[in-house]
Design brief:
The chain has 148 residues and is mainly alpha-helical. The chain contains four helices and two strands.
Length: 148
């Protein structure tokens, strides 16, 4: 959801990629429902089966920022990111791990979608070109610690 939202809200300033440490191989249909419900296109969305190793190799796209979003990823050892991008962790409950009725699962996906949007809005409002790397890291960490 974060990839789709940033690619739209960033208006060409950013090219977001999504990947996981333990990819499932398919985009969760509840995530697709959320993306569609907020008016974002579903085209060009790749499976969350992308491993983050794809973005750590020599042919990886250049990244200025790496943000981990899943609460489970906070304790994992991340790969080396080429180019020393600014990194932060913005923990969200993993909606794909929720069990219950479809309505209960949709509710959690909607909640996480709103939380992601809030943090992305804050990120997009930062004067990135005016911040040095240390200040930018501090702001990104602050966003991750903010309540949505």
């Amino acid at each position: 959801m974060a990839e789709a939202m940033l690619n739209v809200a960033g208006k060409g300033r950013f090219k977001a990629f999504s990947a996981g440490s333990h990819p499932t191989g398919e985009v969760n249909h509840f995530a697709l429902e959320q993306i569609k419900s907020i008016g974002h296109p579903l085209v060009n969305l790749r499976s969350n089966g992308k491993s983050w190793g794809e973005f750590a190799g020599p042919h990886a796209p250049h990244m200025d920022f790496v943000v981990t979003v899943c609460d489970r990823a906070a304790g994992e050892v991340c790969p080396f990111w080429p180019g020393q991008p600014t990194t932060a962790h913005w923990g969200f409950r993993d909606p794909a791990a929720v069990t219950g009725t479809d309505q209960e699962i949709r509710h959690v996906f909607a909640q996480v979608c709103r939380e992601i949007k809030t943090r992305l809005d804050i990120f997009l409002s930062l004067p990135i070109s005016k911040l040095d790397k240390i200040a930018l890291k501090r702001e990104m960490d602050r966003i991750g610690g903010s309540s949505s």
